[in-house]
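Hi R.,

As promised on Friday, here is the backbone we talked about, encoded as C-alpha cells. Could you run it through your design pipeline when you get a chance and send me back a sequence?
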C-alpha cells in the first residue's frame, strides 16, 4: 500500500449485524492488530459483528484515521 493511500473499511448495516470488509492493506492491518475474531464470524472477507459491539469498534477505526464507506 502506498504511504499516501488512506486506509478504508467497507461497512454494511444488516440490522442486528454490522459487516466490515477492509478495502485495502492498511485497513486489513488495523483489523488484524485490533480485533480477535473466530472463523465463524466471517462471510468471505466480511467480518460480521453484533450491532452492540460494532459502535466502539467503528469509533476506534475512525480515531485511527480509517475511512468508513458504505459497502
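Update: got your reply. Pasting your designed sequence below so it's all in one thread:
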Amino acid at each position: 500500500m502506498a504511504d499516501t493511500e488512506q486506509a478504508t473499511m467497507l461497512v454494511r448495516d444488516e440490522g442486528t449485524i454490522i459487516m466490515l470488509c477492509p478495502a485495502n492493506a492498511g485497513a486489513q492491518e488495523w483489523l488484524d492488530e485490533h480485533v480477535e475474531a473466530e472463523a465463524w464470524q466471517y462471510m468471505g472477507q466480511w467480518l460480521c459483528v453484533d450491532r452492540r459491539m460494532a459502535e466502539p469498534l467503528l469509533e476506534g477505526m475512525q480515531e485511527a484515521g480509517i475511512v468508513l464507506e458504505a459497502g
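One thing I noticed while checking it: The longest strand covers residues 8-13.

Thanks again,
M.
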